[in-house]
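Hey, I was hoping to borrow your eyes for a little while. No rush at all, and the record is pasted right below:
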Amino acid sequence: MGSRVLDSEEFIKQFHIPSYILDPDAEVERLPLKPECPVLVFINSRSGGQLGGDLLITYRSLLNEKQVIDLGETAPDTVLHRLFLNLEKLKNNGDEIAPQLEKKLKIIVAGGDGTAGWLLGVVSDLKLSQPPPIATVPLGTGNNLPFAFGWGKKNPGTDRNSVLSFLDKVQKAKEMKIDSWHILMRMRAPKHGSCDPIAPLELPHSLHAFHRVSSTDDLNVEGRDTFRGGFWNYFSMGMDAQVSYAFHSERKLHPEKFKNQLINQSTYAKLGCSQGWFMASLFHPSSRNIAQLCKVKIMKRHGDWQDLHIPHSIRSIVCLNLPSFSGGLNPWGTPNSNKRRDRDLTPPFVDDGLLEIVGFRDAWHGLVLLAPNGHGRRLAQAHRIRFEFHKGAADHTFMRIDGEPWKQPLPVDDETVVVEISHLGQVKMLAAHDCRSKSVLDPSSPIAHDVDERDSDNEDESVGEEWRKFGAADTFKIPDEVDISHLS
């Protein structure tokens, strides 16, 4: 469809949401055309340098201003609560547009991976009978979520034609369900100091998702500190999270240095060097290696816990849900038929209830991902994962959820520190038809290609306030079937 046809009133009206749907106090309108693809647009105006603000202006010039929300001014849970309560009221009053609009509604979120996670959390928390699918505009640095679903990883154009082209793709996109994951951390309350997560200078939105539970929460245990949250793309721990933490801290201190994606990525690489990630064996204490820090246990699908062997050289561990990490790289790859048979490995489907667990020794090891069919150290696939920290192994570590890092203090006199990851449910995404994310239910998904892999699986190891919102609501709870008695 050419830009001349896209830039027409008939095309644009398909995405329009009338004011009375969004605002209970607005007068009901009689529409000549029923919206075919109504979109609610959330934009982080602080993302992408000036791009977020420019995108906000363009979308508001095309659509109803009330359906384009600046996340710097209004939280998404406020908007969605009001919208869906109003839709229910309108449906009960016999409004003809409301039920159709609810059925066809789509969400567009423009920002970094943390912003996208915030919106995914809000939609999950609301427990809607017809949750709207979500399309993500790549406005951040890594843009792993948009890239995984075919929306690209480069910051988009903000002009009228670029936005119209994106709306056209949203209208043609397919829906995909993806797994969501719950993370729970529990430890003995320290005698001195605090073990609350330390965000890089200020809490990013998604870190509202990993926070201390309140004293009235069902998960609260007397004498214990309990934290919980969730993710869709990945959880990582170790040196990669440490570098990410340094990057976010530097960006908060000197925002004027981070005005576009290219500069941000260059700064990220420099910080990787300064943090010793490229020469980890020299600069990184062996006590911070994953095996020295904690014991890892996994549950493959539904069954008994098994110990997972972590090579002593592994300094970073990634639990991956989507085939996009660190700017679009795929750490798991696609195991060939021999690997699938010998090690019970599968391709990385986004809706199979399994996380891919990958290890890295250092940044040079990570560069294998740039080679054709390259991948990290495949450790396992699992339905649930537990990290049991060794007493006194370290006084802190670095963790990261979906691009948002934090420094996690650890009590030095506690042998009971546990982090557990379990499958929670699924959310709906919008995806381009040729996206790299694959569903286990899609018959067109390639199971595997028996090709030579850049394989590191068998290399010599000697080489080289309450968590209020997942994004927004307090209804994102641990699955009922998860037994947490062993954490008490």
About this structure: The chain is about 25% helix and 20% strand. Residues 76-92 form the longest helix (17 residues). Residues 202-208, 261-284, 364-372, 448-488 have pLDDT under 50 and may be disordered.
